[in-house]
Design a protein that fits this description.
The complex is a heterodimer. By secondary structure, chain A is of the alpha/beta class. In chain A, helix 3 packs across helix 11 and helix 5 crosses helix 6. The longest helix of chain A is centred in the C-terminal third of the chain and has 19 residues. Chain A is globular. In chain A, about 55% of the residues are buried. Chain B is built from 16 helices and 14 strands. In chain B, helix 4 packs across helix 9, helix 5 packs parallel to helix 7 and helix 10 crosses helix 11. The longest helix of chain B has 18 residues. The radius of gyration of chain B is 19 Å and the shape is globular. The chains are: A alpha/beta, B alpha/beta. Chains A and B meet through helix 5 and strand 6 of A and helix 1, helix 8 and strand 11 of B.
């Protein structure tokens, strides 16, 4: 199912989308498949991060997850295997999050076709701004992969328009100045950005970075967001390393709590 | 110009895009501004001690018995390295942009020290990110930074060296873009950093050119400089790009290229994107960045400036490497023969210059960028000698 279709469906029901993020290969790839399945009971869209040695847009939680995966000799190709296995059991949209070097080194064509073949519905490339992404955007369009770009609190109106134009699926709004990671409350920048983006953008809007609890998630949906992205809160559960069974129970519970808050 | 051929670019997270555009515009304005140029020149001379001499290393030349070896004495710049050329310029730019906080990464501590100096001079709060491994091996520079009022943040992630210090500085910048200026130390990073820093470091090559013409009435046959990120090298090379002068960059060969324990991105790397630019990188076949090794902390970096990648691919400059051991020998030799203790980074350039001088004619001229002094390295060298 395409990302944008999922969001429209939820909109009709008056629900906000829960986008969950975890890192591929955190612990190992079999467990990643199981964790995705656990999350997808409540999640509407699953975002899967490809580990990178130097994740400059990420805070400590995701950095640690990347290191855990890479220490276990995780390969970029394992990501595609995980996606393929997950997609056999679920048709929920799945988005890959990556740093550009993983695409560049593999070769854009190879990476994108493999991602598509595995069943990915869209991509987020955190360090590929629209001006560097022309070829990428074009190729994704041809392959019917949705291209999710980000906007930050300091993104100008003019720039946001350009980003919106290059975006499909949803536009990812960064709620704060800084990197990913759970925070105790949402900054007022998030609401200002959301209000501005609602005025400017045609794409659905999902807010991420720093969102970890149902209350914050709800307040963003109330303010007009189409969805929220939650990552570090899930990765913290995986990182506690309490064993497969307990991790799955906790992931399910956390996703359920968040999803409940996004329903009217 | 965002690209050097296919290299460079601006591969940055969205939150840094507007700040980078703002930086580009501010720099474009001040670059042509006479007051800015005057101020920069004033501080470089009166505070920094420029121009630095181009010194004929006659003992070394005599002993080798080949080409004349001149040393561009960047080790005599205030702080002990060429780094101040860049930091004063960028700190002045930060002032113009009304940023009241400067952050920087540092490897050897030379850029951190030069940033701390500029911060103290211009009264801007300064914070430095430095890998824990580098903090241990460059203690003196850490203390110098602190003396000048800078706060040093130890970086414990990854290889705990320069690459990781850059990561942390970028994360800090993303969190504090509104009041903070990221003062990058080498010709790496997203556009416009490689251009700004190259322009500021080109003072080295410009002076070198005037000086050699005055002393010898002709240009050198070769210019040799060490390359980590590559700022002293690009600063030395740039004013000679149009001339018939061999340009040679010397990378850190560490324990030998074959061992994999080195930092020679141009000699042994592959194309990739790190820290905002497309260039040559030391990475595995899956695009994960590798840990590097060099005796010289300032060269211990898995990437290199995109303009060097361009000069390599076009063949305008050539790049080679020397090992830790060879650099150490050059360190000892220059100290003993000339009474000049070079930085271990610069000793790489000295080593290669000695190698080629031997095969050149007596009326050939080699200009070596002696990018820094070696006081910071005496601890490392002493340990190595004792371990022999």
């Amino acid at each position: 199912m395409r990302i944008s279709d999922k969001i429209s469906e939820l909109r009709e029901r008056g629900e906000g989308a829960l986008v969950t993020f975890i890192t591929a290969g955190d612990q190992n790839k079999d467990l990643t498949v199981e964790y995705l399945k656990a999350l997808c009971d409540s999640a509407d869209i699953l975002e899967l991060g490809i580990p990178f040695s130097d994740p400059v847009a990420d805070g400590k939680t995701i950095q640690a997850a990347d290191i855990r995966a890479l220490t276990n000799d995780f390969r970029v190709s394992d990501t595609f295997e995980i996606v393929e296995r997950f997609k056999k059991e679920s048709d929920k949209p799945l988005v890959l999050m990556t740093y550009y070097n993983s695409i560049y080194v593999r070769g854009m064509e190879k990476f994108l076709t493999e991602a598509k073949r595995a069943g990915a519905d869209g991509l987020i490339v955190v360090d590929l701004p629209v001006e560097e992404g022309r070829e990428y955007i074009e190729r994704c369009r041809e392959l019917n992969l949705q291209t999710i770009f980000l906007s930050a609190p300091n993104t100008s109106d003019e720039r946001m328009r350009e980003i919106d134009h290059a975006t499909s699926g949803f536009l990812y709004l960064i709620s704060l100045y800084g990197t990913t990671g759970a925070r105790d409350e949402i900054s007022k920048e998030a609401f200002l950005l959301l209000a501005r983006a609602k005025r400017i953008c045609k794409n659905p809007l999902c807010v991420g970075f720093g969102i970890s609890n149902p209350k914050d998630a709800k307040s963003l949906i109330k303010a007009g967001a189409d969805g929220v992205v939650v990552g570090s809160a899930f990765i913290n559960i995986i990182g506690e390393n309490k064993g497969r069974k307990e991790t799955i129970i906790k992931l399910k519970k956390k996703a359920e709590e968040l999803k409940d808050a996004l329903k009217r | 110009m965002r690209y050097f051929g296919e290299f460079g670019g601006r591969f940055a997270p969205e939150v840094l895009m507007e700040p980078l555009i703002e930086l580009e515009e501010s720099y474009r304005k001040v670059k042509e501004d006479d007051d800015f140029k005057k101020e920069l020149d004033y501080y470089r001379c009166e505070f920094g001690g420029r121009p630095t001499p181009l010194y004929l290393a006659k003992n070394l030349t005599r002993e080798i018995g080949g080409a004349k070896i001149y040393l561009k004495r960047e080790d005599l710049v205030h702080g002990g390295a060429h780094k101040l050329n860049n930091t004063i310029g960028q700190a002045l730019l930060a002032k113009k942009m009304e940023k009241n906080r400067i952050i920087a990464e540092t490897g050897a501590g030379q850029h951190g020290t030069a940033t701390a100096m500029a911060g103290a001079l211009l009264n801007i709060k300064t914070e430095i990110y430095m890998g824990v491994k580098d903090i241990k091996r460059q203690k003196m520079n850490v203390f110098r930074m602190e003396l000048m009022g800078a706060e040093v943040h130890p970086v414990k992630s990854g290889s705990m060296t320069l690459k990781d210090a850059v990561n942390e500085a970028l994360r800090d910048w993303a969190a504090n873009v509104n009041d903070t200026y990221y003062l990058l130390g080498s010709v790496v990073g997203p556009h416009p950093y490689p251009t700004i820093i190259r322009d500021l470091q080109s003072v080295i090559g410009k002076e070198m050119r005037d000086q050699i013409l005055k002393k010898e009435g002709r240009l050198p046959s070769s210019i040799v400089a060490c390359v980590g990120g590559g700022s002293n090298a690009i600063g030395s090379f740039h004013p000679f790009l149009e001339d018939d002068v061999r340009l040679i960059g010397v990378e850190a060969g560490g324990r030998g290229i074959d061992t994999g324990k080195h930092a020679a991105s141009l000699c042994a790397g592959e194309k990739g994107v790190l820290h905002g630019a497309l260039s040559y990188l030391l990475q595995d076949d899956d695009g994960q960045i590798l840990q590097t090794h060099s005796i010289a902390p300032g060269l211990d970096y898995p990437g290199v400036g995109p303009e060097h990648a361009f000069l390599k691919d076009t063949g305008r400059a050539e790049y080679t490497s020397v090992t830790d051991e060879e650099a150490l020998e050059a360190f000892l030799k220059l100290s003993k023969k000339e009474g000049i203790v070079p930085a271990l980074e610069s000793a790489h350039a000295v080593s290669y210059a000695m190698k080629i001088a031997e095969e050149m004619e007596r009326d050939d001229i080699i200009a070596v960028c002696l990018s820094g002094r070696g006081d910071k390295d005496v601890g490392i060298v002493k340990e190595r000698l004792e371990a022999r």
